[in-house]
Design a protein that fits this description.
By secondary structure, the chain is an alpha/beta fold. The protein has two domains: 242 residues, Rossmann fold; 98 residues, Tyrosyl-Transfer RNA Synthetase, CATH 1.10.240. 50% of the residues lie in helices and 11% in strands. The protein is built from 17 helices and nine strands. A seven-stranded mixed β-sheet has the order 3-4-9-8-5-6-7, sandwiched between helices. Strands 1-2 form a two-stranded antiparallel ribbon. Helix 11 links the parallel strand 8 and strand 9. Helix 8 packs across helix 10. Bound molecules: tryptophan (TRP). The site of tryptophan has 13 residues, from strand 5 and strand 8.
């Protein structure tokens, strides 16, 4: 891979991603200003993740809105591969999904793919991925979803429901097709090869069109699902994609830092957050204060600034002030990091309380096989 090339697949993301190029490569559509305004109009307000291009691309969003305006609703679906604790990047599509759910009054399905992570991670047992599925469910519930209109699917628990749908999907996917999309080889385990049909299954769980907010790395699965849909007499799933959330070390993050130091987990305590940000968050600042004051910092590559932009500072005016101050050299890297640390810790304090309360709630959210 050349220096300015990049890879985006569900199981491997590498390099500095050029999102316009990615849209072309994947064949998706950029979210235009017109579409943005249309969503705002129907929702009655805009969302900072849309305004800032955190959600930047889509498939068939227009059809979803056309149908919605004619009185035909849709449902929402997203998911998580439980390979460990939830980190703050995972919350991006979930928070946005919650907003969509509130604005469009839809039902929501959340899939936890304990099987997938067992297949794709050599060192994880099925017991471990299942344990993480239940842990990750707490983070999802903590964001304010309600059991009346939100169902959590755990693959190994709900296989009875998923399997008949997955089977219909699987029959329409041939090996050369998945191989081309995911780059499978002869030593790929066959769980992985079948898996895409399980991630497709929730798309067809209701007799309605589905809209999926998701990280763009998951698009390849649904490209396949969209090809299959008409062949099994179902509407194609619509998608709305968010950008990848950079590791603390930055997009081309050094792999030498241990995995847990590349990100902030929702279970991290305040002190850990402080240490991780101070030690690892890639800085767009100058090597010393004098130079920083003179030349200013680069917020566009600064991970602390990016975290504020992506998630932790919804207020556009405040964000702009930080941007300007950092760029002019008025704000130092340490000061910027402090703002982020305080924002994250404030968020996590609240989140962790709700997360613990969610333990008694989980049962009500779990999808029941009929
Ligand atoms: N494969 C996803 C992951 O590794 C989990 C997932 C399942 C998902 N269904 C989804 C993600 C639907 C987005 C949308 O995280």
């Amino acid at each position: 891979m050349s220096k300015d090339d990049f890879i985006v697949t569900p199981w491997h993301v590498e390099g500095k991603i050029d999102y316009d190029k990615l849209i072309k490569r994947f064949g998706t559509e950029k979210i235009s200003n017109e579409l943005l305004q249309r969503i705002e109009k129907i929702a009655g307000e805009s969302h900072f993740m849309l305004r800032r291009g955190i959600f930047f691309s889509h498939r068939d969003m227009k059809r979803i809105l056309d149908d919605y305006e004619k009185g035909n609703d849709f449902f929402l679906y997203t998911g998580r591969g439980p390979s460990g604790h939830t980190h703050i990047g995972h919350l991006v599509p979930w928070v946005f999904a919650k907003w969509l759910q509130d604005k469009f009054k839809t039902k929501m399905y959340f899939q936890l793919t304990d099987d997938e992570k067992f297949f794709s991670k050599p060192n994880l047992t099925l017991d471990e991925t299942k344990k993480y599925a239940y842990e990750n469910a707490l983070d999802f519930i903590a964001l304010g979803f309600k059991p009346e209109n939100t169902k959590i699917i755990i693959d190994t628990e709900n296989i009875q429901t998923l399997y008949p749908i997955a089977a219909r999907v699987a029959k329409k996917i041939n090996f050369s097709n998945t191989k081309a999309v995911f780059g499978f080889s002869n030593d790929t385990n066959i769980g992985m090869i079948f898996y895409t049909s399980l991630q497709s299954a929730p798309c067809f769980i209701e007799n309605k069109p589905v809209l999926i907010p998701l990280g763009v790395d998951q698009d390849p699965h649904f490209r396949i699902t969209r090809d299959v849909a008409p062949k099994i007499g179902k509407p194609k799933p619509a998608l709305i994609h968010n950008i990848m959330i950079p590791a603390l070390q930055g997009p081309g993050g050094k792999m030498s830092a241990s995995e847990e130091n590349t990100t902030i987990y929702t279970t991290d305590d305040a002190d850990t957050v402080k240490k991780k940000i101070n030690k690892y968050a890639f800085s767009g600042g100058q090597p010393d204060v004098e130079e920083h004051r003179k030349k200013g910092g680069n917020p566009d590559i600064d991970v602390s600034y990016q975290y504020l932009r992506i998630f932790f500072e919804p207020d556009d005016n405040k964000l702009k002030q930080i941007y300007d101050d950092y760029k002019s050299g008025k704000m130092l890297t340490g000061e910027l990091k402090l703002i982020l640390i305080e924002k994250i810790n404030e968020f996590l304090k609240n989140h962790q309380e709700k997360r613990e309360k969610a333990r008694d709630q989980v049962k009500k959210f779990l999808f029941e096989n009929s």
